[in-house]
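Hello again,

I reread your note about wanting to compare the complex against the isolated chains. To keep things tidy I'm splitting this into two emails, and this first one only covers the full assembly. Below are the input lines as submitted, including protein chains and any nucleic acid or small-molecule components. They are followed by the predicted structure of everything together. The single-chain runs will come separately.
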Amino acid sequence: MTATQAAPGSGVGRFLGQSVKRREDARLVTGHGRYLEDVLWPDAWHVAFLRSPVARGRISTLDVKAARALPGVRAVLTGADLDPLVKSWWQTAMGKDSPQPPRRLLAADDVRYAGEPIAMVLAESRYLAEDALELIDLDIETQPAIVSDHRGRWGAAKDGELVHPEYGSNVASTLPYPGMPDSNPALEEVLASAPHVVEETFHQHRYICVPMETRGIQARWDPARDLLEIVSSTQNVHEVRSTVSRLLGLSDVQVHARAEDVGGAFGLKCFVDSEELAVAAAAYSQQCAVAWIEDRNENLVAGGHSRTEDLTVSLATDADGKILGIKGHHVEDVGAFPTYGVGGNAGLAMMMLPGPYDVGQYFYSAEAVFSNTCGMTPYRGPFLMETVAREQLIDITAARLGIDPVEFRRRNMIRPDQLPFTTPTGLVLETITPIETLDQATEMIGYADFRKEQAAARAEGRILGIGIASYIEGSPAFGAAGAEQVTVRMDMAGQALVFMGSGSHGQSVETTMAQVVAEELGIDIDDVRIVQGDTISSPYGTGTAGSRTATTFGGAARIAGQKLKEKILQVAAVALEASPDDLEITDGVVSVKGTPGAAIGMEQIAAMAYAGHTMLPADMEPGLEAKHRIRNPPLMFSNACHAAIVEIDRDTGAVEIKRYVVSEDCGNMINPMVVEGQITGGVVQGIGGVFYEHFVYDGDGNPLTTTFLDYLLPTAADVPDIEIGHVITPSNTPGGFKPMGEGGAICSPPALINAVRDALAPFGGLPNVQPLTPEVVLDVIDGVPAV
Amino acid sequence: MKPAPFTYEAPTTLGEAVDVLGRYGDEAKVLAGGQSLVPVLALRLARFEALVDLNRVDELAYVREDDGAVVVGAMTRQATVEADPLVRRAVPVLAEATRLIGHFQIRNRGTLGGSIAHGDPAAEYPAVVTALDATVTVAGPSGTRQLAAADLYDGPMTTTLADDEILAAVSFPVWGPRSGFAVREMARREGDFATAGTVVGVTVADGRITRAAISLFGMGPVPLRARDAESHLVGAATAGLDLTAVGAAAVAGVDPPSDVHASGRYRTRVASRLVARALESALQEATA
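Full-complex prediction:
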């Protein structure tokens, strides 16, 4: 079911706004995708890492002699071999002076999380490399690990034992940043005097990206060509190139990085982590080709973790439920070696906690702590704790005040007449529609009727609940990420190659960006091909991350397309002896408006633009190529409302999602099918996080969920139909597009948790525990205190 | 996740397979559908000098009726068991339990004998053979022998088969008329190993239960029989039977494991309720 409320001028054209079938699908669903493992160089040496079996300890013995002697093994490298090669190590987006934990390619003296790489074997095959691992003599004097317990409460000691002695503290970072006010006295007054103040601490457990294709890289140093060649499964080839060149002290022109098809990433492949850098360093030092494909066990244990945080929120209202102020305190566990900087997401969460509401006074503080666990990495909606906590607290507050949770939201949402609305954190919201999406979602799910159905079901002993959650999706496009370029080149035959600095890993970029360009140029979509993921052929860019493809690349593609169209018309005007203003392009043919006989095909125009340049005016540059580097605001916004109905099995605590509805406003949609696919995928990840996925450590920092037998992903059998409605309010960016790639994952956890909380209302409160396993739910029903 | 080196043997007859296995003794492992063994090898949680692959031993793939029992060859695919008309008619609970094993792709590859010989205490088939008092045919160097289900399991994923023996077939007794069966399990997701589960069979005559079998899976180191609960059922009138009490009796004294998915306490509560549900369904079938 799809409902659409479109504003006038919603940008629907021949291709734009159409659910064009994905051009990627024919190869991807028939097994013809080409992933890193499909293009491994035959001369590559295969890597297996020796990883720490314990969370913390001193390495007393590391003897690799027997492993080196195994036939088929080229080298066994340790920290002593590789770490001296490191010249500098930082992420472009963070800058070289940003604080971060002490980095090392391989642990040498001590280990700081279970799974940390200690040595790497280069062998003729991965099989042999793993055989060699067994011949390495490793002894570690175990030390007490600094970890939180498996329910996620924070155990990281502030003093005494340190995860990183060099850092001087287990506190990785704090908010407010130095120089910002460290309190809001006006908010304190509100909290002291408001008729109602509700405070709760919400927890989000550790769950992780797990893309179908794990991480992987192959690298080859060719001294004759003075070139380090890299193929990586990455979201951002330019970051791979630059991180590696900085690491090894090479220049950017000495490193060429590219990607093939990338089988998912979700944030895990934004940055470049120690294993990938170790492969590049090994290729450089050994002067050979080296390849590593992360296996699933490694991916789960050491592939970058996410979530793992608490957010305490105080919400003050007047007697009618009007929000007067919000205060948040956020505690994040960033593990030992977060992939970028110190790994915290509180900076964005701080900006977004007020969400789509007019909250009055506001203050936010945060603390990120290191632990002897796998480091944090971005995961779709990395800052989503703000929505997860706020939307739950709204339901709790509404219940205490005896106000319907939908009505409570409606009373506090930013109204159309308040736009543009400046939030307490200085964000300017111009085109959001929270009330419209709330109305659409509640209408689609039949909210009013459900309450009657629920009452009848309860009388029969059935347990039904409904949950609502709303949010603003903020897409960060800071620095270079807000200035992406698209180059459109039409060669002599009249088709278009489109060069972009994106790194598609499932976003349908080859389809949507071709739609944008084909629309502007007036040619067929099959005459457009997207080129991306290559540091030699793609414009400099920051890859695909942060839900920016439609707004930054789409906006740039639109303007580059317009520029090229102007040029095409100028050349055609020469041929047709007409004014460019009198020409139009239809299906690849330029004609004089009102005189269809006066026409010229794209191929002839292209031939004239290059080979016939002598016929062009002297001041006209030959050729058909246009580029545009866009300048976008640092944050762009969409909004949505999710609604879920669940039924709970009285005997087992199993939760069935009976309905799931999303109403969203991402402005003009390039491709509604792709929008809906993005939402659905995100919602499935939220379902996984709330009910199934949990990376568990024991109290000593030993990982317990190291295979898919224990780390449970939702499957198609566990996911309901996701019903999606659209409200279309164009943004002020070129094309009217808005960011929407992460919202499905951001808003689904609180919608689902709220639905379970609503269902369990007759049994008392839902503990702030995640995930909601059948046992957690059954304990509430049976009135058994949680373990 | 690459296995340590092993020798691969691919016999084509049962006799040849027994001979090959005998050459290696406890250094070899039999490979059936590979749905559990292959991941274990890839993770190097176990290693063997040789794998003896039964996938070319065609004589081990069959379903046939034999003297009041349904006999299923060890290499019969689970998908075949699930769809087999004889199984569905004569041992319906075996077909019903099969649907709960993994997903269809797994059942296309997984075998009946492989699952039973692997002996995962949270798997469905071991609980079915335990509940139905099936008999296992074991082939070894000195010929074949019959082994009662009650004597098959020694501990988690451990059978009483000798290192040089192969589980060749399983014989499921066909219960008489007015019998009913049910399998119920709680799994975190569709297709997962059970957090807790039960297989129940009853026969009813003149309003009274004349035969009862209850097995529990995911509840201990091996599939368990709830003998006390069964003995209370036999002779009891079906009318007014306290299903909840039977469920409670079935888990009394059981000490199920705790893991990342659920505590033992949860397993006990859920298994008790699943027994009640399964018994209700089995009684309905028996008295229909």
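For quick reference: The first strand of chain A starts at residue 2 and ends at 6.

B.
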